[in-house]
Amino acid sequence: MTLAAVVLLAGCASIATDTPAAGATTFRHAPLVRDLFIADPSAHVFDGRIYVYGSHDVDEPARDDEPGSGFVMRDYRVLSMDRIGGPVTVHAPGLRLEDVPWASMQLWAPDATEHDGRYYLYFPAKDAEGIFRIGVATGDRPEGPFTAQPEPIAGSYSIDPAVFADADGARYLYFGGIHGGQLQRWVSGRYDASMGITDLQQPEAPALMPRVARLSDDLLSFAETPREVMLLDDDGALLRGGDLDRRFFEAAWVHRHDGRYYFTYSTGDTHTIAYATGDSPYGPFTYRGVVLAPVQGWTTHHSIVDVDGRWYLFYHDTELSDRTHLRSAKVAELVHEADGRIRTIDPFVR
Ligand code: FUB
């Protein structure tokens, strides 16, 4: 396994070394598919079948030098399987860039939900001005095809939408990503390109926090202005910008287990999937630990899903390509300990 690669990163500076998995030996889990690259896997069970909504990574030149510009995805391909470990179906493209009226490039990490037999695909893309927005597309089948709304969700920005359906039926959209995900450009409430390509560079100040908004009943818009999801340390203080091992970078996800809400996310340049717990879908969430140790590849992204009473982590790595922008989705069993902690998953047998 070669661990050095010059890459265009999703979130960090445009060139870096791809070495988070140093010391690893054997990959613990196999790619779900081997003939195309699917990353950022968001898994759900719809009508008894497992569907995975991911980014469809391709090897094409970047169009600009913004961070993450090497991730040029142009369509979404849904995967499905009837059980974990079963044969995987790769569905025809469910949505193409050219069919999204407002989008100019970069169909990044999506997610989906179902309501009354309709399926809703939430996805980020850059608009004509190069600003990431979040769109929604609908269809009659979980794998699509999906028809995009003519405009992005009003008031949406940044990347990595993830939908959580609470027990009362309310749906919440979590989103945000720093660096290439542009969250730092929204600190004033308006897009400000002068905020540059990094985070706030204030290590002692509170970190940039992910966002959440409850969705409207038709699931096509925000029912409220997005608010910050507060991530705290054990003392109840906001995680700081310089706390690179714990602060939010991108890839939000929420699941509920035993009455607790788990907010899970990527720490980006420290390469873990971390978790924090709370009592409300809005948070605050207190940092608890690591769900997934660093994988091979710079980015890490995941989803957590209950399949017939057992929990699974879907994630990605670069096992098949050793190139940061060509990633493969994988799945691992996830264990909640009796005290509510999540047992850390090591993607390697060491
Ligand atoms: O796939 C493009 C970006 O890479 C995602 O939006 C991030 O979460 C990272 O996985």
Automatic annotation (TrEMBL):
The keyword Hydrolase applies. Gene3D superfamilies: Glycosyl hydrolase domain, family 43. Keywords: Carbohydrate metabolism, Glycosidase, Hydrolase, Polysaccharide degradation, Xylan degradation. It comes from the Bacteria. InterPro entries: Glyco_hydro_43, Glyco_hydro_beta-prop_sf, Glycosyl_Hydrlase_43_Enz. SUPFAM superfamilies: Arabinanase/levansucrase/invertase. Belongs to the glycosyl hydrolase 43 family. This is Alpha-N-arabinofuranosidase. It comes from Luteimonas terrae.
